[in-house]
């Protein structure tokens, strides 16, 4: 608490430089759920098939909430150029065209992951395996995106800065630790690495331009922490559901 108060006491100072502000945002990666004990255990091969299935089923609810969150942000964007860029995120998850191959989208790729770990499409889409705390956390995020100023909602998406590594870790460890999972089911992780990198570029552009005072920059860090807390809370709930 004393450290946090000391940080807050600098709010009267000039804004951080763009480079220093970005460094502060990236430093939030220390609270990313890549460090959650359940994720660490999962990537170390310590999860049972039932635990993997529990994780996949619950994270699916997050996947289907992402385009709803992005649509809420899009609705609040007054600028056409930003809307055109943000629209890509919705198509990335909902898919487009014939919903085949690279056009299928992230939700279909996650459905394939579910099938690869032994969850039928019908069971996954029924959402019966989703625990209440995961629903609550995801719904809270969608609600925040709908009601917050669009720049703040964009800032919350910057957890994507840390996502490529978590996907790379799964691709590196799962084939060894969980050979029973069909390899083509891991396509979601492969696909998200370049997409997350692209999304971060736009999200950072908006955030660095919008939060122009030291106090506003602290607010941005709080927003990013809020999103990090959602992801961490989801794993807390999933870990408990697996016990």
UniProtKB/TrEMBL annotation:
It is an enzyme of class 1 (oxidoreductase). GO terms for molecular function: pyrroloquinoline-quinone synthase activity. Keywords: Oxidoreductase, PQQ biosynthesis. Pathway: Cofactor biosynthesis; pyrroloquinoline quinone biosynthesis. InterPro entries: Haem_Oase-like_multi-hlx, PqqC, PqqC-like, Thiaminase-2/PQQC. Residues 23-236 form the Thiaminase-2/PQQC domain. It catalyses: 6-(2-amino-2-carboxyethyl)-7,8-dioxo-1,2,3,4,7,8-hexahydroquinoline-2,4-dicarboxylate + 3 O2 = pyrroloquinoline quinone + 2 H2O2 + 2 H2O + H(+). Its EC number is 1.3.3.11. Coiled coil: none annotated. It comes from the Bacteria. Belongs to the PqqC family. Ring cyclization and eight-electron oxidation of 3a-(2-amino-2-carboxyethyl)-4,5-dioxo-4,5,6,7,8,9-hexahydroquinoline-7,9-dicarboxylic-acid to PQQ. This is Pyrroloquinoline-quinone synthase. It comes from Hydrogenophaga palleronii. The lineage of its organism: Bacteria, Pseudomonadati, Pseudomonadota, Betaproteobacteria, Burkholderiales. The gene is pqqC.
